[in-house]
């Protein structure tokens, strides 16, 4: 009985700690979003994504950023306006859990629309959601395997 209570306390404590982290902190803690976090810092979007939200972030992993040609990624990281446009294209206002995703268009914070698909898993434009519903205190992260680019 005592071991069960300790396990429940540890689980509850971990869940509380996870919920206390905002989107930026959650991405940093995950460890697979180093490029995304560096890009968010370069674009000056840290305070925004630490704000009250709620936000839904379609977060490309480091492996997704590795698919972008190095010259193109380096140029993007040096162009704050273009970088901001790309990053905010990955963000939707509100907290949309995977179970609530419907196929169709959704307006991004950047202003253009993403196309969501639900036929064989969830897709976002040309990207596939590889992990969903990573909850943060100010929204949710859905991990994607490709950096999506606005038109």
Report what the structure shows.
- By secondary structure, this protein is α+β, with helices and mostly antiparallel strands.
- The protein has one domain (2-144): FAS1 domain (Roll).
- The protein has helices spanning 2-20, 23-30, 34-43, 46-49, 62-66, 70-78, 80-88, and strands at 55-60, 91-93, 104-107, 113-117, 123-124, 127-136, 139-144.
- It has a 7-stranded mixed β-sheet.
- Helix 3 (34-43) packs across helix 7 (80-88).
- The longest helix has 19 residues, at 2-20.
- It is globular, with a radius of gyration of 16 Å.
- Keywords: Signal.
- Pfam families: Fasciclin.
- Residues 1-20 form the signal peptide.
- InterPro entries: Adhesion/Biosynth-related, FAS1_dom_sf, FAS1_domain.
- This is Putative surface protein with fasciclin (FAS1) repeats.
At the fourth level of CATH, the homologous superfamily is FAS1 domain
The number of domains: 1
Overall helicity: 40-55%
- The residue ranges in which pLDDT falls below 50 over 5 or more consecutive positions are 1-19
Distance between the termini: 58 Å
| Strand residue content | 15-25%
Please tell me how large the radius of gyration is.
Answer: 16 Å
> What is the mean predicted local confidence, pLDDT?
87
**CATH level 3 topology:** FAS1 domain
Q: What is the H/E string?
A: HHHHEHHHEEEEEE
The strand order across the widest sheet is 2-1-7-6-5-4-3
Number of strands: 7
Number of helices: 7
CATH class category: Mainly Beta
Protein name: Putative surface protein with fasciclin (FAS1) repeats
Signal peptide: 1-20
Domain FAS1: 20-148
Organism: Sphaerotilus montanus
């Amino acid at each position: 009985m005592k071991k069960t209570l300790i396990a429940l306390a540890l689980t509850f404590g971990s869940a509380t700690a996870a919920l206390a982290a905002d989107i930026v902190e959650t991405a940093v803690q995950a460890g697979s979003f180093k490029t995304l976090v560096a890009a968010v810092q370069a674009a000056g979007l840290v305070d925004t994504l630490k704000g009250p939200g709620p936000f839904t972030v379609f977060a490309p992993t480091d492996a997704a950023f590795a698919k972008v040609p190095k010259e193109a990624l380096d140029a993007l990281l040096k162009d704050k306006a273009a970088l901001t446009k790309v990053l905010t294209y990955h963000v939707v206002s509100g907290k949309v859990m995977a179970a609530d995703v419907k196929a169709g268009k959704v307006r991004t914070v950047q202003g253009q629309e993403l196309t969501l698909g639900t036929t064989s898993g969830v897709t976002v434009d040309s990207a596939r959601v590889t992990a969903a519903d990573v909850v943060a205190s100010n929204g949710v992260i859905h991990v994607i395997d490709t950096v999506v680019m606005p038109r």
